[in-house]
Amino acid sequence: MGLKMSIFRKSEDTKPSAPSYNSDLYKLDQHHEAKLDSKGLIPVILQDAETQEVLRLAYMDRWALNITLEEGIVFVYRRHSRRLEKLGEKKNLVYKVQSVKLEKSKKVLLMKVLPEGSGKAKSSFIHEIELFEGSDFFDEDDQKTPDC
């Protein structure tokens, strides 16, 4: 598959050693480190590698990242239940990782995935927001762009 971004250092006997990391950094490969938030999580945008549709926003902790990058299958950290879960498991889906990109600030990952299985992968982004350009919805003062 070509996705060998192991965070484990291989010793002479090819057994993995413990990952080395700073408390807020996660070593993705030899050249890239991701910045984890104060809870040890990183947001991950999952995008269908074929259709380019954004499927969902998920969060990964160190263990989810370890397993995902080692196995090439998406595992996520469920914040509400505080557990690791193979994404799509309840819908008979497996999300196979095709590529991983690190955002410029190193605080977000983009994973292109191929959903496989008997279930249907659907985007979590289902609510289309109407833009009110040219309507009375906004006051003239509200339409001014704030200085950033």
Description:
By secondary structure, this protein is mainly beta. The chain has a domain at about 25-125: Ubiquitin-like (UB roll). The protein contains 1 helix and 8 strands. The chain has one helix spanning about 60-70; strands spanning about 25, 35, 40-50, 55-60, 75-80, 85, 95-100, 110-115. Strands 4-3-8-7 form a 4-stranded mixed sheet. A two-stranded antiparallel sheet has the order 1-2. The chain has a two-stranded antiparallel sheet with strand order 5-6. Strand 7 (about 95-100) and strand 8 form a beta hairpin. The N and C termini lie far apart (about 45 Å). Mean pLDDT is about 85; it is low at about 5-20.
Q: What's the arrangement of secondary structure elements?
A:
Elements: E1 25-27, E2 33-35, E3 42-48, E4 54-60, H1 62-71, E5 75-78, E6 83-86, E7 93-102, E8 109-117
Parallel strand pairs: 3-8
Antiparallel strand pairs: 1-2, 3-4, 5-6, 7-8
